[in-house]
Amino acid sequence: MQLPLETEALVVHAPGADFEMTPIVIQDLRPDEILVNMKYSGVCHTDFWLQQGALGPLMKFPAIAGHEGAGIVRAIGSEVKDKSLQVGDCVLLSFSACGECSYCRDDQFSRCTDFPSLNLTGIRRSDGTTPAKLADGRPVRSQFFGQSSFSRISAVHEHCVVKCPYPEDMAIYSPMGCGYQTGAGTILNIMKPKADQTVAVFGAGSVGFAAIMTAATVPARHIIAIDIVEQKLALAKELGATHTINSAKIQGSVVNEINKVTGGNGVDFAIDTTGVASVIEKMLDCLAYGGTAASVGAPPRGDNISVNVGAFFAGKKTWISVAEGDSHPPEFIPKLIDLHKQGKFPVEKISKVYPVADLKKAISDMKDGTVIKPILEF
Ligand SMILES: [Zn+2]
Ligand SMILES: [Zn+2]
């Protein structure tokens, strides 16, 4: 493997600037890294955070986004622990973790105490360098979530890599490492609803759909999808939602509508994928006695909500935050692939592949609800 290596990536040159296909040079491959020829990458809202500068001081520019990569192994660092991994293997990429803290040692990568610095800065933890530079020699942040998958080739951290035995399904599986495991893991790893229980999902994006589809595998008694785009709600009903609520169209409150469905009891489980403070308040208000609410969409720092603490206490309610579905990707992603193979997690119905040159179209289709999960092909 000859390094440095010239390639191209969608570089964001400054906060708020467009993603721009730009020549880059991969400088070197560390012993704990894997060089991946990227074939596909899902597009997730966190990529827009990076692009808009919303990660604040964590992220510097120029930077490469992308954290739902899928590709083919091109070279393997000398100390990579998974000795079964070979050049030519198909891999799905997920988030990075330190591998050393008490959570990581317990195979709970999503709780890694170093999660923000490892995933949101795009630099190596060991020495703050970046694997890639621009042609003029300036470093470019190129390990976003350990992978920066909006690149034709990327040097990724070994903890991101999950082998995929189905190269033919690499495109539709690429979002497993973030959006899909976040929604599915919240249901299967944390909430574990029983057949007589009820679930409400606020926001019908890819995370919400993954939650709806996995709740339908139980199947939970009521699965209520809440969104403001009619087209997405219609698809949610097709893929497992028993009820849908268009919160932009109803008279009165979402909580009232949920109470109508549940006979006034509220829901046993509620998930907020939006991160919007007013939606989180509704999520807490719609819980049944003993119910659990999970925030999985990150709210802006500094936002506050109002909670009736007396009712919350008396109702024995729980509110938790969940990152990446509390999943350990090397174990959980293969489980999701199995579910898909059984026809119980039909991710092909919510995604669409776009050539990377059509990125703008992919983004506008995602924003207006035409497609739930755009996947870029490199
Ligand atoms: Zn850790
Ligand atoms: Zn994501």
TrEMBL record:
SMART domains recorded: PKS_ER
Record-linked InterPro entries: ADH-like_C, ADH-like_N, ADH_Zn_CS, ER, GroES-like_sf, NAD(P)-bd_dom_sf
CDD domains hit by this protein: benzyl_alcohol_DH
Source species, domain of life: Eukaryota
Cofactor: Zn(2+)
Any one GO molecular function term: zinc ion binding
Domain Enoyl reductase (ER): 16-376
Keywords attached to this entry: Metal-binding, Oxidoreductase, Zinc
Signal sequence coordinates: none
Family affiliation: Belongs to the zinc-containing alcohol dehydrogenase family.
Protein name: Chaperonin 10-like protein
Provenance organism: Parachaetomium inaequale
